[in-house]
Amino acid sequence: MLNWIEQRTGFVTMAKDFLTEDVPGGASYWYVFGSATLFAMMVQIVTGIFLTFFYAPSAATAWESTRAIYLNPWTHFLLSVHYWGASAMIALVFLHLLQVLIFGAYKSPRELQWVVGVLLLLVTLVLGLTGYLLPWDMDAYFASQVSLNITGLAPVLGPVLQHIAQGGGSMGTATINRFFGLHVWLMPAVLVLLVGAHLTIFRHNGPAGPVLEDPRTVRKGPFWPDQFFMDGAFSLIVFIIICFLALVAPPYLDQKADPTKFFVPYPAWYFLSLFGLLALVPPEIHLGPLTISLELIATIIGPTIFLLVVLLIPWLDRSRSRGFSSRAGLLWGMTIVVCLIIGLSIFGQATTMSKQASAPASPPESVVLAAQAAPVSAGAPGAISAANAGTMQSNTGSGGAAPAANSNGAKIFASNCATCHGAQGAGVPGSFPPLAGNPVVTGDPNTVIGIVLNGLHGALSVNGQTYNGQMPPWKGTLSNQDIADVITYIRASLGSNHASTVTEAQVKGYKP
Ligand code: HEC
Question: Nearest Cα to 51, choosing from 246, 277, 309?
Fold first, then answer.
């Protein structure tokens, strides 16, 4: 059987050649990152293909199909593996790159292998960036808006590139289609081609082996079984970690993208350092008559120069030997850059978190997933008319409030409050208090006005249950009239609430 295949394909000899290849200096766990990256890539390709069976790229369906993926435990796991697989792949590419730098494995004759490797890192990052948009939830939308706007900053070609990637003047279905095409076709194709080139060059030159001052003393070890075992064991551990994280920490799906709302986007961890850099520098400085755009330097010029330097490392490092002492400058430079990237990432994380603290909090995922499409995609015409229809009925029962004001109150409630407090005001145990059947809501109007105007946080007890969360302030976001209407709505029309209405004058005259 094997013979039959061998005679027609030569596969057996190929596999033998591959497995009996020499590993200079013997097998080592130092060499596992490359093969583990390849393994993570295959995980991404397999899970990614299956995800396309369930995902529908358009503004009307992207979030909805993602929500459906979340609602089925199997596809939810698939998506979570894809999510953590992406992080694993990027982390492994970085580790692989650092190992090659430390070992000086980029040196002649492996310069082109290094260049292809750096391009692979870039393609991987673009895959991360384009995949980030696809769920089309709040963060996907606002974070991608940041990267698209940065693209637009680039001199000369920037605006054109932004227009092409965005598929027009603003983000919408065309943007999803562009990103989808890049994410599932163009970038994977480029990735596979470059990986092919990377491995072919690798086969041509052979492994670089350990760092020795005198390369003639290196002994040889076979790839099979030692190195093969180490590569396999490490990839298996990576896979177990990915699956574990996918089970215990699946990604969070926020509400559907709504450009009219205020949202503080957070980037994927591998872009945090760039985010931090952007937050660190003022947009521009003035030197006499000269205005220098630091924003442009931080987002485009700086990273481009950095990338060129990294690409040119094999030619910039002129030392003959791969020994550590002859490359001290490069190794120190690498250490400093790694520390800078970590520092900037921490700074980026801290600034994002402090900005988020003062923005309306995202609802828990259970609320996002449970909400029917109508209240969640607030702003869509269907949502509002559905909410209105509900109110018209309850108006008849409540009797007190003027129908016009009350239907405005219902609209405000559906688009601003229902995501947390529930469409019927039932709340969410532990986090968001119910507003229906809540004595505070139907009690002193002035207290309720104060809460809605200024927000509320800290532990709170309603009907014997405690809630602990952040209620955002609405002063400035909603007009006094809207606040009066929504309070009237929650006091007089929600559940069995039948308390008095609230007027704009009462909101205006609020006394703490
Ligand atoms: C981001 C989620 C969120 C949104 C949106 C939100 N709330 Fe709240 N709300 C909360 C949380 C959390 C609390 C409880 C705060 C605490 O634990 O101290 C709360 C408390 C309240 C209370 C006080 C309840 C009590 O028993 O003291 C009222 C009244 C209220 N919200 C009304 C509204 C109205 C009206 C809107 C829309 C204009 C709204 N909320 C939007 C999260 C939210």
Answer: 246
